[in-house]
Amino acid sequence: MTKRALITGVTGQDGSYLAELLLSKGYEVHGLIRRASTFNTHRIDHIFQDPHTPDRRLFLYYGDLVSSEQITGLIAQVKPDEIYHLAAQSQVKVSFDMPEYTGAVTGLSTARILEAVRHSGVTTRVYHAASSEMFGSSPPPQHEETPFHPCNPYAVAKLYGYWLTSIYRQGYHLFACNGILFNHESPRRGETFITRKISRGISHIRAGKQDKFYVGNVNAKRDWGYAPEYVEVMWQILQQDRPDDYVIGTGEVHTVQEFIEEAFGYAQLDWRRHVAVDPRYFRPLETPELIADAGKARRALGWSPRIKFKELVQIMVDADLEAMGLPSPGAGKRILREKFGDWHQWQGAVQEALSGLQREVP
Ligand SMILES: NC(=O)c1ccc[n+]([C@@H]2O[C@H](COP(=O)([O-])OP(=O)(O)OC[C@H]3O[C@@H](n4cnc5c(N)ncnc54)[C@H](OP(=O)(O)O)[C@@H]3O)[C@@H](O)[C@H]2O)c1
Fold first, then answer.
1. Of 30, 153, 173, 241, which sits with the fewest C-beta atoms within 10 Å of its C-beta?
2. Which pLDDT score, from 0 to 100, does residue 362 have?
3. Is-contact 79 3, C-beta < 8 A?
């Protein structure tokens, strides 16, 4: 029988990849999108199906997670086999500027979803997108038993959702799981996130549109993986016999400065001429060092990342150069061809970047 999935945040980086993955597995995919006065569906335009298409498998609904009215009705109507709760105000820096809003969306939305599931009587499995930011200042490597010491409002909001998911699993016996994912990036990463800011900045510099861009704390140490691999593990987590929580990451750590140097070196540019630090991007409190110990996922799910740091950098730089209509060194494109033969294709990978370019053309 065809499985039905509901994805919140389907227009985001992860939601768009996950929708593709699930469609490729034969799922019927229902996605919640928030209404905006401009188009916000560019990451899923390539899989969009007109409502009049017979036998379509992608359904989109307007809704906002600050209110439970839509989500409750939707769960009762769709009766999904699986819910992937990915929607969030996901920017750490923004969470300092808008802590209350971040709590309302990133934190409370999980309560709205879990309550809706509980009251609907629908038997569904729930994935909650928790975050490595919850570990905060706890020394690395971090695993499922590491204590949480969050350093920003975003992480606090995620922690609320994390504990609620755990409580509903134990208290109400819901099949509810936390994926504690470390940073994962792609050509579809939001343009204000540091990795994408770097790869996109390089393409703008190469195209002569920009000469310099500004970054915040270049000493932050992060564990960066490749987003399509991380949505695969979200699906795996919900296919297990028992609900559980998993840390997901590569176990490899690099500073933001190293990302800059690797990306500029790959594009044969001198970063010193084009990148400067602007304290405006500093956070009131920094999360110093995040490195995943994903041993449990490796043992229980057989998951381990195929794309590591250097390859990720090459994929992102190639994609942004191509999106700008420029030649790319091509190593990133080659890596994807070799490692992802099936659902995940280069053209799809760069979709967000390409559609962004199309909109720039008058
Ligand atoms: N990427 C990472 O490194 C990472 C690591 C750990 C955890 N996570 C978490 O994993 C999830 C997916 O990450 P991502 O990188 O795909 O994030 P993203 O690209 O920022 O996507 C966030 C999604 O949430 C939607 N959204 C935001 N506020 C909403 C609201 N009030 N109502 C309905 N939808 C709303 C956004 O809609 P619009 O398109 O309209 O903005 C977008 O579809 C997030 O919860 C994030 O916090 C991400």
1. 241
2. 26
3. no
* Closest C-alpha among 36, 30, 26 to residue 10: 30
Q: What pLDDT does residue 355 have?
A: 53
Half-sphere exposure of 11 (CA within 13 A, CB side): 17
H or E segment and range at residue 203: helix 194-206
For the chain, give the mean pLDDT.
Answer: 93
| Residues 6+ away with beta carbon under 8 Å from 286 | 151, 217, 220
Q: What is the pLDDT of residues 9-35, one digit of tens each?
A: 999 999 999 999 999 999 999 999 998
DSSP string covering 173-233, please? Answer: --EEEEEEEPPEE-TTS-TTSHHHHHHHHHHHHHTTS-S-EEES-TT-EE--EEHHHHHHH
Instruction: Tell me the pTM.
Output: 0.95
Are 29 and 59 in contact, with CB atoms under 8 Å apart? yes
pLDDT level of residue 51 (50, 70, 90 thresholds):
confident
> 272 CA to middle of ligand 1, Å?
32
Residues with CB under 6 A from ligand 1: 9, 11-15, 32, 34, 36, 40, 64-66, 86-90, 105, 129, 131, 181, 183-184, 190
Expressed in angstroms and rounded, the spacing between residue 61 Cα and the centre of ligand 1 is 16
